[in-house]
Amino acid sequence: MSTAQETAGGEIEPWEEVTPDAARRLLVAAVEAFAERGYHATTTRDIASRAGMSPAALYIHYKTKEELLHRISRIGHDRALDILRTAASGEGSPTQRLAEAVSSFVRWHAGRRTTARVVQYELEALGPDARAEILALRRQVDAEVRGVIEEGVASGEFDVLDVQGTTLAVLSLCIDVARWFNVDGPRTPDEVGALYADLVLRMVGAAK
Amino acid sequence: MSTAQETAGGEIEPWEEVTPDAARRLLVAAVEAFAERGYHATTTRDIASRAGMSPAALYIHYKTKEELLHRISRIGHDRALDILRTAASGEGSPTQRLAEAVSSFVRWHAGRRTTARVVQYELEALGPDARAEILALRRQVDAEVRGVIEEGVASGEFDVLDVQGTTLAVLSLCIDVARWFNVDGPRTPDEVGALYADLVLRMVGAAK
DNA sequence: GCTGAAGGTGAGCGCTCGCTTAGAGTGCCA
DNA sequence: TGGCACTCTAAGCGAGCGCTCACCTTCAGC
């Protein structure tokens, strides 16, 4: 049995590590509000009322509004890094692992779009210390993707002129999904993941 | 002689259409502030003081803070669309025109990063009417890129399974440049433009 | 020299923000 | 049953927000 709860849709709810229950409800409410309006446009009163609590209740579980963002960003980056690591260190050729990394990373950005939006676009609202901690995680994200591409180049499967530039472009493509993906749109997260994996394999010159 | 002024760096300053001078200074100050901190985290006092004026002066030239964002977004989208139209309707094969479209669009996002950030990421701060107007421009942006890809498919130069999905991915790649590009980083806008044009041609299966 | 339009300022209004405080309700254990 | 720890609320503080208003300066036209 998984340690993570699953929703009706079969998607993993990644906030089970946040306790007690009231703290988790506040955090989930904050993710939704930050994703919809952005950190600065969200009020603590809005977060509390979404969680069905009074404004003061927020400060029992979190010192400041920024701490809420920090917790969300930290957990979200951990999850994103975990997804990439699992794919990058799995079995199979660099081609297969890059395809799996891109498709699972994209699925996460599309399927958990609200979280991904906060994680990818609200970084600058963090203070210097928290931002530095998160930036370290992002360098690890970059390193995972770059590693797979380097292996593919070394094995001769890939044909890449600028490894770091291509790494950046691959991540760029995946991350931007959080900006445009629409749950009510014509594509499922799985479909976008498959399409983007194909496009990325083309970008690195992998044989089909 | 061009109707646009040029800076010392040779880059076109696109705000010459904004008059009088004080209104332009306020608008340029707002672009910088919105790009740095986001629309909601920027105060009208900050904008005015960057322009060397008192807080009240802003309201002589603009009805509200949101009108400033609207003007910036409108002019920026017009410029972005103009860049794409010029490239897409130019001479040469679909391959050449797609490469030119991507490289010039990316150059704009990198070289005029502050404007591009506001244009691409502060859309949701606009009210319903203004947002609808801007969304119409974005559909035209999409149509320009899709048009070139469709021509390449029709001529047999491109090998694309999902034209609309690939169009979205191409635009996605270009737009995300505004998020990560760093003026002090190792790459010039020209270099990123050339790299991304190459990557996009690979994505559409164009012969090298 | 006078006038009106245009562009500017200092002061501050009404409001909402993030956050605090005093105290009430609830359940656990001696 | 009493007391304590924990959780939550009602009320509201000080600060800073977008924006306004009364007034000042500059300058072209007569």
Which descriptors would you attach to this protein?
DNA-binding, 67% helix, 208 residues, mainly alpha, disordered N terminus, homodimer
List the helices and strands and how they pair.
The structure is a homodimer of 208-residue chains.
Chain A: H1 21-37, H2 44-50, H3 58-61, H4 65-88, H5 94-111, H6 113-121, H7 128-154, H8 163-180, H9 189-203
Chain A binds a DNA duplex (30 and 30 nucleotides) through α3.
Give an account of the 3D structure.
The structure is a homodimer of 208-residue chains. Chain A is mainly α. Chain A has a domain at 65-203: Tetracycline Repressor, domain 2 (Orthogonal Bundle). Chain A is built from 9 helices and no strands. The first copy, chain A, has helices spanning 21-37, 44-50, 58-61, 65-88, 94-111, 113-121, 128-154, 163-180, 189-203. In chain A, helix 1 (21-37) packs across helix 2. Chain A binds a DNA duplex (30 and 30 nucleotides) through helix 3.
